[in-house]
Amino acid sequence: MSRYDLTDFEWRVIEPLLPNKSRGVPRVDDSRVLNGIFWVLRSGAPWRDLPERYGPRTTCYNRFVRWRKAGLWDRMMDAITAAHEGDIQMIDSTSVRAHQQAATAKRGIEIIVSVAPEAASRPKSTRSSMHKASRSD
Length: 137
Fold this sequence. Notes:
- There is one protein chain.
- By secondary structure, the chain is mainly alpha-helical.
- The protein has a domain at 30-88.
- It contains five helices and no strands.
- It has helices at residues 8-14, 30-43, 57-69, 72-83, 117-121.
- Helix 2 (30-43) packs across helix 3 (57-69).
């Protein structure tokens, strides 16, 4: 079991929500496909890098898109939240990032970022009012 795979409890919650209409071709195992979709979403890798143990990447991608259009992902999240009795937290890492220099700041140093209003509005391409001193060597 990979670190991105569903637990047995999560699979039991999600399985009844999945469409089970079989057309002519036998379906690839839904749990394998779901684990593949979660692998791509959690790792941030492109679909083409999906490991073979999750089945064909086109199958995983097509089901992801089809289930998104059908609203299945919202129903899955609602079911998982209900199964955990609302005691679940999900954090999108894009909103929790720290500035690249946040880890290197020294304690006790106060960093002031603001600039005086007149300094901020001063044109940047004006000549200096001071005359250059001539060098005599």
